[in-house]
Automatic annotation (TrEMBL):
Topological category with respect to the lipid bilayer: Multi-pass membrane protein
Domain Polysaccharide chain length determinant N-terminal: 3-94
Protein family according to the UniProt entry: Belongs to the CpsC/CapA family.
Domain Tyrosine-protein kinase G-rich as annotated: residue spans: 142-194
TM region(s), chain numbering: 18-40, 174-195
Keywords: Cell membrane, Membrane, Transmembrane, Transmembrane helix
Protein name per Swiss-Prot or TrEMBL: Wzz/FepE/Etk N-terminal domain-containing protein
């Protein structure tokens, strides 16, 4: 016999396991908040911009083909910026306690479509170090690219600057807590339905009918202790009334 679950039964299951659902959700939110605020190291980001454009004198004429050439070179420049040829010099000049490969993991290079501006971003737990690495990498790249590519079409458009109270880009505690609440709620609801699915106890007369496949002829009502005491008091009062009526007659 195919079993069907009504919306009412689903709501009853959620209501019965409400404490479990709320507890798991709160625990997930608290754990996420503690980890985000106290255990994870804040990471700061500093960015600089590099312009890929041949310097012109007053007699030079604007050439669309040259702009297109610069755009095509940007992908190559993005690779060169994070190459050992550049990063080894940055590590040496800043006396960083890391390898070029480790420094590469901190650097992100990208550019907008059809743009001659290259964005160079550096992430580090120290905001000042992040700015120093970004600026030094741009400077070294500008100095070394004529030797590597035999062209001089790179200039620094904007240097990395750290404000007085920069906010870390990660972790984001509020976002992490929100995600933890959603995940915790989903997990708690799933666990509630799972516990209900594996609960084989007979809870009501409908369960008896489903398991045995027989119609229910009658139900024995449940009487709690308070109701029993009330019945005893009513019976005693009735007997007292009857006894009084008998003596009076």
């Amino acid at each position: 016999m195919e079993e069907t679950i009504s919306l009412k039964e689903l709501l009853e299951t959620l209501k019965k396991r409400l404490l479990l659902i709320v507890s798991i959700t709160l625990i997930a939110a608290i754990v996420s908040g503690v980890v985000s605020y106290f255990l994870l190291t804040p990471i700061y980001q500093a960015s600089t911009q590099i312009l890929v454009n041949q310097q012109k004198n007053e007699q030079s004429v604007y050439s669309p083909s040259e702009v297109q050439t610069n755009l095509q070179l940007i992908n190559t420049y993005n690779v060169i910026i994070t190459s050992p040829a550049i990063l080894d010099i940055v590590v040496s000049e800043l006396d960083l306690k890391m390898t070029a490969s480790q420094l590469k993991g901190k650097i992100t290079v990208g550019s907008e479509k059809d743009s001659q501006v290259v964005n160079l971003s550096v992430q580090d737990p120290d905001k000042l170090v992040a700015a120093q690495i970004a600026n030094k990498t741009a400077e070294v790249f500008q100095k070394e690219i004529p030797k590597i590519m035999k062209v001089d079409n790179v200039s620094i458009l904007a240097k990395a600057d750290i404000s007085e109270n920069p906010a870390p880009i990660k972790p984001r505690p509020l976002l992490n807590v929100a995600i933890a609440i959603v995940v915790g709620l989903m997990a708690a609801v799933g666990l509630a339905f799972l516990l209900e699915y594996f609960n084989n106890t007979i809870k009501n007369e409908q369960d008896v009918e489903k398991i045995l496949g027989l119609p229910i002829l009658g139900v024995i009502a449940t009487i709690d202790d308070q109701q029993i005491e009330e019945l005893k008091l009513k019976r005693a009062a009735r007997k007292s009334t009857l006894r009084g009526e008998t003596l009076g007659s």
